[in-house]
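Record type: monomer structure entry
Structure origin: computed from sequence
Chain ID: A
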Amino acid sequence: MFEARLVFQDGGVLDVAVNADETLAEAAQRLDLPTRQDCLSGECGACIARHTSGDIESDPTELLTQEERREGLALTCQTRLASNAAFELDYPLTPAPTAANRYDATVTAVDQLNGTTSRLRLLLSDADDLWFAPGQYVRLRPPGLRVARPYSISSTPADLPSIELLIRHVPGGAVSGWLEASAAPGQVVRLQAPLGGFARDDRSDRQIFIGGGTGLAPLLSMIQASDASTGRRLLCFGCSTPTDLFHIETLRALQAARTDLEVRIAVMSGEVDGIAKGTAVDLLRPEDLEAGCAVHLCGPPMMVTAAQSFLRQHDVPARAIRSERFSLRA
């Protein structure tokens, strides 16, 4: 048996005894620790941590690039200890979100934001004890379906027991098919919540958010839940075409209401008045990346990879970059 030291974003520390036959995530689950994990199969990224010392053995995973692994990122559900070791986690020890549980929720609105994106509004029942951290997600199972899919929460904890999800329609997708054919107010869906380890870095005075498509959802939750009287925040948001754009007026209104926030919006192809041409990453400028900044990424894999490359080229340290792995399965 070896010991893992977990150091949280707020400086909290937990020492975890890990058996030889279990992963770090399994040990944390066995001890009922307030760490965040979900699938335990290396597919979701909820349990990502940064390995800082000691010897470990990690199973191969396509979720992390070779560069990320060299920088110490590891999936704790695929990591076993070969000695005492230490890890950093990108979220605080306290306050901790409630443990993931299953809830019924009633659909209160289904809003088509554009040809490919819907906003789903839900009212949870028996969720008086539920609290999530901005950046987390839920697993949604619509009525009559056997599949459940993960979607980031775009609303804030203050909105509970109501939550909002931004869902991209995927051709042939089970949840997409339900949204297009039969989703309506009054229907009851099943949720598992809260899930995920994506979190805002509150240690930095300069926070940057880069989102593509429905990757905007957790970033919107993080920004809206932050204290507008402290910090300086930049949101760079991009979509592929003019018909893919959504929430433009919402974002402009948010910027107008907050002195701490600057919003930049881009579209990769086509022309839209007041919208830049390019990707969300193209909206970044070297002068935005001042020392001590914290960067949050959520969007399609190509966007996340391009953002990481740009940030490294401009000497943003790996520990200042955090990302949510984005999937178009629906």
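Annotation 1: The mean pLDDT is 94.
Annotation 2: The two ends are 41 Å apart (CA to CA).
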